[in-house]
Amino acid sequence: MRRNIWLIIGLVLIVVLAGCSAPVEETPAEEPMVENEEAIEEAIEEEVMEEETMEEAEEPMEEEMDESNDAMMPEMLEMSYEELSKYTGKDGMPAYVAVDGVIYDVSDVAAWTGGKHHGNMAGNDVTDAIKNKSPHGVKNLEGLPVVGKIVE
């Protein structure tokens, strides 16, 4: 029985080694056919000219897009604390709060529904509450829309 197993293993090795050592036929690489070099050069020149034309056409479009983006960007507000006090989130007004002189829109923040959040009221500077009393600190301000800044 052991003799048969060794015989089979030996035959398998011979077959495997014979298969690995089979010569590999090399096929000659085909050379690309070039029938008319002038026609190819003309086609390349036309493609380059088309690319340059497209690039020139894109430049004004980019400038126009920049101008339209400026028009779409809301203008940053500048207001005093007295003016900020009108933005309480009530009577159809948005809810704004100021932190470190930056005015944030909290109108769409669920925690600020009705212009209130844990005893803080929209329309006020909440810097002290956010920085010194809030468990989340300023990290929850990230991603809120900045609508302006406080001016004295």
Ends apart, CA distance between termini: 101 Å
> What's the SSE pattern?
HHEHEEEEHE
Number of domains: 2
The helix content is: 40-55%
Number of helices: 4
Overall morphology: elongated
What share of residues are in beta strands?
A: 5-15%
How would you sum up the major sheet?
Answer: 4 strands, mixed
Read across the widest sheet, the strand sequence of neighbours is 1-6-3-2
The CATH level-2 architecture of the largest domain is identified as Roll
Please give the number of β-strands.
6
Mean pLDDT across all amino acids? 79
Alpha-carbon Rg, integer = 37 Å
- Given helix and strand content, the structural type is alpha+beta
CATH fold node name of the largest domain: Flavocytochrome B2, Chain A, domain 1
CATH level 4 superfamily of the largest domain: Cytochrome b5-like heme/steroid binding domain
Specify the oligomeric state: single chain
Uncertain stretches of 5 or more adjacent residues:
none
CATH class of the largest domain: Alpha Beta
Note down, in words, how this protein is organized.
The protein is an alpha+beta fold and about 150 residues long. It has two domains: about 40-75; about 75-150, Cytochrome b5-like heme/steroid binding domain (Flavocytochrome B2, Chain A, domain 1), CATH 3.10.120.10. About 45% of the residues lie in helices and about 15% in strands. The chain contains four helices and six strands, in the order H-H-E-H-E-E-E-E-H-E. It has helices at about 1-20, 35-70, 80-85, 125-135, and strands at about 75-80, 95-100, 100-105, 115, 120, 145-150. The strands form two sheets. Strands 1-6-3-2 form a four-stranded mixed beta sheet. The chain is elongated and about 95 Å long.
